[in-house]
Structure formats: C-alpha cells, structure tokens
Design a protein that fits this description.
- The protein is of the alpha/beta class and 411 residues long.
- It contains 16 helices and 15 strands.
- The protein has a seven-stranded parallel β-sheet with strand order 3-2-1-6-7-8-9, with helices on both faces.
- Helix 1 packs across helix 16.
- The two termini are 36 Å apart.
Length: 411
C-alpha cells in the first residue's frame, strides 16, 4: 500500500464490498478492475462492507470497514411502509446509521471524488446525491426483477411487488441521473436509463498470454457460479432448469457424462442436486483454471438477469468452450457458432451439448476462436489504458463540482 499522498494526485474515497484484491466472485472481479485503474492515478481510501482478508490490499492508503446489519418491521409497519415509504423494500431491511456515521467521520467533502460500487452500497453509505459521486451501477436491479417476473410468467405478482418494482426503477434512474458519472456493464442495460445515460464499461478478466491446454477427452460439463443466494437468483434458476429439463436427456445418451458445479452452494440446493444422477458438487476450488482445463465445455443456461456473465468470459479466457442461452451471452461482442454455441429450448440444449461432447475438433475450434476474441476485447490489462482515461475524465469532472450545500441522499 502507498505510504505518501502526492499533491498532484486526486484523493478518491472508494465505497464497495468484500476484498476485491483477493478475487473470486464476479462482483469482486469487477471492483478489482476499477480499483487497479484508480490506484494508478489517485490516492485511494477504501471503505468496504464485509471486508475480511488474509492478505492486505495491494492498493489504497487505508481501509475502513463498514458495518451493515439487518432490521425488521412489524407486519403492520411493513404494510404501512409499502404504501407510503419511497424506499424500495431492499433498502428498508438494513440498518445503516453506524455506517453513515463512519463515512461522515472520513469527511467525504475533503475527497476529490467518491467512487461507489452499486447503488445499494452508495445508499447505505449515504453518498447518493453527493456532487462528486462516481457510481458503478454494474447491473440494474429493477431490470433483473422485471425479467425474472417475465421469465416465470408472474403476471399475477401482487400489487406490493409491482409497486416496489416501480420504486426500484425510479430509485436507480435517479441515482444515475444525479451522479457525476455512472457506469453499467453493457449496452442493453444502458438503454433503460434516460439522459444522461451511463457509460458502458464491460467486465474484463485476466487473460493468459497463451491459450491454456484443454482436455479433448473430457466428459465433464462445467458450471461456475455462486448458488448460495435466494432461489430467485439467475444462477440457481439456471442450474435448476438445466438439471430438470436438459441433463436427463444428456445422461440418457451419454451415461459417462458428468455435470460439475464449482462455487458455493446453499445447503437446501445441495440436497436437491444430490438427487440428480451424475452431478458433482465441487464447491469452492483453489484452482479454477484446472476446472476449466478438465471440462469438455462450460455452460451458461441463464434465463434472466442483467450485466454480462463473467463466467463466459473466464471460460473463454481459459480455452474452455461455452454453450449458452441467448440471454446468457447478452451484451458480449461475440458471434454464435464461432465463439460459442447458443441454445434456448431443452431439446436444442440436449442436441447441442451431445454434439459438442462427441466432437473434439469442434471443441478445439471454438476454444481457439473464443480465446482470441477474449484477448482482443476482454483482457483487463489491455483495457486498462482506456479505463484509466475514462476514470480520469470522471475524476476531473468530480473535482470541478462544488461541495457546498450538499443534497441529502437521493430517494
């Protein structure tokens, strides 16, 4: 960590979550991408929720931990707030007074810019509406919810859910509108915002200089992602749909096939998966590259969601072919049948997976093309000069913004 403050370098307060320098889930990789670029041009002070680490951060001058606790409402209060409170429900279930006290003690006005990862963390920290706020929306929550309702044909969902969805949309649009700069992962997410629209900063990963070896004789299909959140998460929905609608047809034709799941899996979902033949729950693995190396291909049977799937970019960076739904590769500059295979119906998935399992030459051609494309567009080192310029412009705009009469956190 840096020891001295340079008078020529701007001071940036970074608000985020977890320990991004240690890597792992997609939300950590995206933060790491921004933090590496910010560290090259500014003196960083990190304020992080849920930050627990074994190795200290490689950037920033200091780290401040931020607490966040859940709070509950009585049924009557809950109903009353559903009717009258402008906050979306998600933000009403957390207590953040102590968090905001800590942020206030850091004197946000003394920084040249405040960079916040995601709208919810910016809200909890009380910096929404700050005139020097740079906001990475990442992927808009209101769009993900709407798509989930549509995917599951929940046209009947109750009036309180519909009202809360409208509140979340209004909340996120206001957050983007009031920031000095706002960022999203992909163009489709950008289009849901009014003027000024957020900038598109795509997710990137560390791509090896040479394409990793790939096992042409593998009978393993691989899914990488967290299955620890609610049953409504896109990952859990994707795996459940795959093992119920697609996997039985693959196993019937290829009994030696195995479906490997890498990532944290909630206990109740583990019990469900244990009843499915030929499913291997691997949980957290130290060497993710090895998991990709020994898979015939990875899958992304995503049916709803926003942002871009880092699991697809990571797989291609490791030379592992990908089969995805149309929704899964949305927002990525790829060409179906050249860089990945795309299927949507169960029968199409069964046919596509079986054909690819039985064709090592096709696996090899997809691996080569996808790796080359990932090196061109999604390598974090290659993208860093561009991202540094984008962030430098944002910080310059933030530094020019006055901090007097700072507005309250936006609703």
């Amino acid at each position: 960590m840096a020891s001295d403050v340079s008078p020529s370098r701007p001071r940036v307060l970074y608000i985020g979550s977890g320990s991004p320098w240690e890597g792992g889930a997609g939300y950590l990789l995206r933060q790491h991408m921004f933090l590496q670029a910010l560290d090259a041009m500014s003196d960083l002070h990190l304020a992080l929720f849920d930050a627990v680490w074994e190795v200290p951060p490689t950037y920033g001058r200091a780290v401040t931990g931020l607490p966040l606790s859940n709070c509950s409402e009585s049924r009557l209060r809950h109903l009353w707030n559903d009717l009258t409170n402008p906050l979306p429900l998600t933000f009403r279930t957390h207590a953040f007074d102590e968090t905001r006290r800590i942020i206030k003690s850091l004197n946000p006005d003394s920084f040249d810019a405040i960079f916040a990862y995601r709208v919810d963390f910016a809200h909890f920290a009380g910096v929404l509406g700050h005139p020097r706020l740079i906001l990475d929306i990442d992927d808009p929550e209101h769009v993900r919810r709407r798509l989930r309702f549509q995917t599951h044909e929940l046209s009947w969902f109750d009036w309180r859910s519909r009202l809360d969805l409208r509140r979340m949309r209004r909340f996120e649009l206001n957050a983007a509108r009031n920031a000095v700069r706002a960022f999203v992962c992909q163009v489709n997410d950008q289009q849901v915002f009014d003027h000024p629209q957020p900038y598109v900063v795509p997710n990137c990963v560390n791509v090896p200089p040479v394409r990793p070896a790939h096992d042409p004789n593998s009978r393993n299909l691989l899914f990488v992602g967290s299955l620890f959140n609610s049953n409504q998460s896109p990952n859990i929905d994707a795996v459940r749909w795959f093992v119920e609608k697609v996997w039985p047809g693959i196993v019937a034709a290829e009994p030696s096939a195995r479906f490997h799941i890498v990532g944290e899996v909630k206990k109740s979902f583990q019990e469900f998966l244990k009843s499915i033949p030929n499913v291997v729950i691997r949980g957290y693995v130290e060497d993710l590259a090895d998991a990709y190396r020994h898979a015939a291909f990875s899958i992304a049977p995503i049916r709803y969601g926003t942002g871009t799937r880092l699991k697809i970019i990571e797989s291609m960076a490791q030379g592992c072919p990908v089969v995805s739904t149309t929704k899964g590769w949305e927002g990525l500059e790829l060409t179906p049948d050249e860089h990945l295979l795309v299927a949507d119906s169960p029968n199409a998935w069964i046919e596509t997976c079986l054909n690819l399992l039985q064709n090592s030459d096709r696996q090899e051609s997809l691996s080569k093309a996808a790796f080359t494309r990932t090196r061109e567009l999604y390598d974090v080192d290659a993208r860093r000069p561009w991202l540094t310029k984008v962030l430098a412009d944002a910080i310059a705009a933030a530094r020019a913004a006055p901090v007097k009469n700072q507005p309250a956190a936006a609703l």
